[in-house]
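User: Here's a structure from my thesis project, written as structure tokens. My advisor, Dr. K., wants to see whether a designed sequence matches the one we expressed. Can you design one independently, without my sequence as a hint?
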């Protein structure tokens, strides 16, 4: 992929970034990384941690769960839905659009040691 001046995002490192309903009270998102380098960046706690997810989704950091699965190059993230599924204020009943802020998360090029 040629270098561009546009900022890289987490979606650029991934085959797929998706969100899905994990029951009436939880959302789960998965990031399937293209290669080991992408996984190394995405799984790094200094890049993606509970605090980052809490800021992106306006939830308490203590409620965020992050699972890093190196053998599959997957990062899985779960947190409570802001409102119960199907409630009057639910704007995304299937949680299918929750992945967008995560996919757009800017990735800075890591410094080489």
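Assistant: Designed independently from the structure alone:
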């Amino acid at each position: 992929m040629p270098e561009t001046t546009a900022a890289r995002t987490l979606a650029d490192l991934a085959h797929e970034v998706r969100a899905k309903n994990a029951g009436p009270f939880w959302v789960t998102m998965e990031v399937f990384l293209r290669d080991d380098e992408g996984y190394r960046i995405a799984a790094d706690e200094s890049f993606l941690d509970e605090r980052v997810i809490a800021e992106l989704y306006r939830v308490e950091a203590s409620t965020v769960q992050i699972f890093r699965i190196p053998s599959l190059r997957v990062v899985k993230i779960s947190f409570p839905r802001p409102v119960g599924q199907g409630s009057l204020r639910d704007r995304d009943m299937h949680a299918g659009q929750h992945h967008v802020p995560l996919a757009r998360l800017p990735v800075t090029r890591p410094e080489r040691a």
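When you compare it with your expressed construct, this may help: The radius of gyration is 15 Å.
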